[in-house]
Amino acid sequence: MDRQIKNIVILTGAGVSAESGIDTFRSAGGLWEQHKVEDVATPEAFARDPDLVLRFYDMRRERIQQVEPNAAHYALARLDAEWSGNLLLVTQNVDDLHERAGTKRLLHMHGEHLNAWCTACDVRHGWRGTLIDRPACPSCGISGQLRPDIVWFGEMPYRMGDIYHALNRADLFVSIGTSGAVYPAAGLVREARQNGIATLELNLEPSHSSSWFTESRHGPATELVPQWVD
Ligand code: BJW
């Protein structure tokens, strides 16, 4: 890596976890081919048919507990452990594979499968079981008000202020395994370019945002990420 670089922001997406066995969203056979986004990933869908939405997330919460981090997650954890400058890994992923691999400087902008959010008392709880059975909130005791702690379409992604703050002092922005189709995450590369910093894309194929990057490398994350880190 370039010795001039001190401060790094890394954005990851579903492609990083694909080789661990978690479906991506927009690839052939991906989640959005099997389910209509507007039926499962919007607040309106949850209000209309909570059983369908809770079942969809219960299934995925169970699935992520059966998979393991891969070489890309471990390489990023090594970088986090060894990098003496500022580093922030912003993940759009709702799995916990980055933290299980050991990354500490991490932020989940689209929420986490292993959290449930009580809409009655606004407290979040670590959650490994199901929500379909309408359990009571461990804090306020009210039943049936827990929802997946996932940012649905039309909702505000988490910690945007922290993300822009890190980006504005970064001298490298790296995007890994994301299609660049979902905003505001997809707009971070433009912000980085406006700041005049180097931008690198590591993805299986050119993404929707490829033309914004100063450099793009294409291939599987388990090869590209360790090559870039080491
Ligand atoms: C590999 C690989 C391998 C495969 N190795 N690579 C313009 C501006 C702002 C907002 C909008 C806008 N236009 C529209 C909007 C609204 C909307 C939006 O973006 N819609 C688009 C569809 C157009 N955005 C929102 O509603 C967001 N909220 C919002 O905008 O609030 C207002 C606001 C504005 C400005 C600032 C601040 C706030 C909320 C978005 C929430 C996204 N939620 C989801 C679903 C969560 C539910 C769930 O998990 O079920 O999050 S959508 C889904 O997509 C999930 C992901 O995090 C997200 C991104 O997907 P990702 O990770 O890129 O996956 P894929 O499948 O798309 O791509 C995988 C890539 O990996 C592919 O390129 C493969 O090639 C590659 N790959 N195998 C390397 N082995």
From TrEMBL:
Q: Which residues carry out catalysis?
A: 110 (proton acceptor)
Listed CDD domains: SIRT5_Af1_CobB
Per UniProt, the enzyme's principal EC class comes to transferase
* Spans through the membrane: none
Q: What is its EC number?
A: 2.3.1.286
**This protein's record includes keyword Ubl conjugation:** no
Sites where the protein binds Zn(2+):
118, 121, 137, 140
Sorted alphabetically, the keyword list is: Cytoplasm, Hydrolase, Metal-binding, NAD, Transferase, Zinc
Pfam families in the record:
SIR2
Q: What is its main location?
A: cytoplasm
Q: What is this protein called?
A: NAD-dependent protein deacylase
- Record organism: Sphingorhabdus rigui
Lineage in the entry? Bacteria, Pseudomonadati, Pseudomonadota, Alphaproteobacteria, Sphingomonadales
